[in-house]
Structure formats: structure tokens, C-alpha cells
Here is the input.
Amino acid sequence: MSSQRHFLGIEGMVRADLEALLSRAREHKRSIEAGFRKTPLAGRVVANLFFEDSTRTRSSFEIAAKMLGAEVLNWSTRGSSVSKGETLLDTVRNIEAMGPLAIVIRHTSSGAPALCARHVRCAVVNAGDGMHEHPSQALLDALTLMEKLGGLDGRKVAIVGDVLHSRVARSNLHCLIKLGAQVVLCGPPTLMPSGIEALGARVTYDLTAALEGADAVMLLRIQLERQGESMFPSAREYARSYGLDAARAARLEEGAVVMHPGPINRGVELAPDVADGPKSVILYQVTNGVAVRMAILEACA
Ligand code: ASP
Here is the structure.
């Protein structure tokens, strides 16, 4: 965690920070499994401010906060004074005036949580900002991979899909490289940010090459809401070239795992039988999200 207690992105964190949070998440996971509850955040409030839709992240931060004994405010744009023109900073400052320990923000604009962090005294947690970062997702993915593969050092992880618009890809890239994994990025050239190799990943446009020797494959959703125009011919064409279907999944290494941050476009980036098949750890990722977010919230105190 940074000295300010904010949790804004993986890019600014060092390996030791990531490992400390992961190890704390493992402890929380063990306590949950043992039915043992401590409530270090009793009497504190966690405010969830979601300016963009969410299923997993919002529920998971809410459950995590409640598991730690905190009260939770669930705020969303719909029904708020944003429709009357209230700005992001005014909204956040007003919520802060009610005294929360932390404000968890999801926003369509990259950098919105970092901007808020400069204007409030409470901790700010990034729950996904535009095309920038989704740091809690990267941590829960790292925990999943460590548990399923027995470690990350030297492991090969293929991230496949709309890398250009994906905050999940960016946070995972930083996180996996810091934790010693090799990352291969794969997708159509129109959905690959130019120069991304500089961050330490290998890039290929050929799915078969990306999957060769991979210990894990992480599929990304096509982020239609962040694309001005169509950047691939059709969903069918995309699935044919970059979708993980049963035939491709069958050629994966023994023990390799299939991941997806959700929501899945079934039949586009991932075939339904693979999403629900034996190599899939997708719901395990969701389970791990709670313990990881408990570690993140606890570190805000
Ligand atoms: N749920 C993830 C996110 O909010 C992934 C996605 O939406 O495709 O970034």
C-alpha cells in the first residue's frame, strides 16, 4: 500500500507490497473457510461509489467490508445528483464529509480515482477506471494463479482479447511481471496497444502461438462500450480467430487453467463448454475476490 493508504493501481506498487496483500488475503481466506470472524473495521464505513455498472466488483467489495465489520454505503450514479450536474469532485467530497474510512470508486474515466485521492483525506480504492487499471482484479487473479499453479515465478500466462481497452489486462500485466511470470499478449492488431512490449510482455497475433506452453489463459471481454467504431469484422469472425473453443482448450498443457474476469460474452471470446469446463477457474477467481478485497480495505485503516 502507498504511504497515503490509497489503492490506485498496480503500476506504482512494488513486489513486496503485492506479496504482503496476497499473504493477508490468504489469511482472510483461511478465516472465512474456518468460519472465524474478526471485525477490525467495526464502526467504520466503506463507501462504494460506482459511476459505472458492476456485478462482481461491487458485491465483492461490499461483502469484504461487511466481513471486516464495516458499514457499507452503496452509491450509484442512477438516482444521484450527478443527473443535476454535480461534479465528480463535489460528489466525492460530500461523501467524504460523512466520514468514511475509504471510498471505493469505479469510473468510466481513466485517472478518476487518482484525481479524487488528491482531494480527500480518506483512502481511495480504485475499483476500475476507464481503460487504465483494475488493480483488485489483478490481485485476485494473482492469488488464483498462485493457488492453482503453485506459484508464479517463470509461469507463462497468455492474456487474449481486447488488450487495448482492457484495464484488467493492464493491471494484470504489471502484477504478473512484478511477481515473476512471463506474459504473452494476443489479440487482433487493431486491439493491441502499440509499444506495449515495453512493459515486458511478448506480443503475438496468433492464438495458437500464444497458447503453446501456457500455464494459464486469461480471456478478455470485447469492450464495446469503450470502442468508438467496430475494431473487428464480426463477433463470429472474432470467435473463429481469437475465441477459446473446446478444440483449442483441449490442446492446452495438462494442468493449465482458463480464466475470465467477467462478464463473459459466451460464444465470443470463450465457448460456454470451456467456461463451465474442468479447466475453468472463473468462479474460483470470484471467490478469491472477497479475501483480496478484505486485505485491500483493511490496509486502508
Ligand atoms: N469486470 C471487468 C472490468 O470491470 C472486466 C470487464 O468488464 O470486461 O473491467
The pocket of aspartic acid is lined by residues 128, 134, 167-168, 221, 261-262 (CB under 6 Å). The two ends are 11 Å apart (CA to CA). The chain has a mean pLDDT of 95.
